[in-house]
Design goal:
The chain is mainly alpha-helical and about 350 residues long. About 65% of the residues lie in helices and about 0% in strands. A two-stranded antiparallel ribbon has the order 1-2. The two termini are about 45 Å apart.
Length: about 350
Amino acid sequence: MVSLARKLIATRNPIPTPRTYEVGNLEPLQPLVPFSWLQETKLLESHLVSLLDNCSCLIQIKQVHAHVIRKGIDQCCYVLAKLLRMLTKINVPMDPYPRLVFHQVEYRNPFLWTALIRGYSIQGPLKEAVRLYNAMRRESISPVSFTLTALLKGCSDELELHLGRQIHCQGIKLGGFCKDLFVHNILIDMYVKCGWLGCGRKVFDEMFERDVISWTSLIVAYSKSGDMVAAAELFERFPEKDLVAWTAMVSGFAQNAKPREALEFFHRMQSAGVETDELTLVAVISVCAQLGAAKYANWVRDLAEGYGFGPANHVMVGSALIDMYSKCGIVEEAYKVW
């Protein structure tokens, strides 16, 4: 395999500009940096970031890092933040290599701080991510939205509600995040996972802008909690009902032992022209199993075959069909699927 280092573009070393003097003054003026050198540096930085995107192992990342050092741009936060994100992506422990990269930069920008904070938020310990955030604030560096979302995601994964609420308050205190869609979506996710669905709904209601994730995450949360009335109310308000939202409603009614309502929503979904996927079909099959009638069993089997999700090639559908036929008392058909 051709070494990754050979793919790096060759750049000329910057040509020193002549020293210039003012008339009557023997002190030299500070030479200007040539524009061509700036262009070359920016192109190199962009190329290195692109190379890092394609790295799949630690050796490749270290090759790019070595080139960064050799070219004298080892203080470039833009490139090094990407390097830290890639190290996180391939699960390289934050200590010692990523941390060493971070500490060798003299002037760190918010994105470099965020890259290391995000690494600790994902890998742990979360308290180290918080400690880094506090250190960043002590250096009078303002966080960006990605800083808060990284910390909130860590709180969501570890169910750290108290810490998550503190970060939420910090975002309000700092200002500038009240209209940030990504921050609000992760706040909803955190409150829902921590069992504070009411707070998640309050965040949703106060949002200036909502996307598909905002709507569906709350619909799914209501469905899982058994509050299908609230889920249906929110679903009807959803302006762009997609497959995820429809499936959440069908699955929600199925999980809450309301098979007829689930079938009603599935028929509405078909009438709306929304494509059916494997997860939706599994939910519908479980509904038919609850009804326990042979006519529904045969109907949903034909439906699965018609959509191209036959049990021979789709294990989830096959398992659901076997369960359904067994509950409907049609053991022969269950054996055929098996």
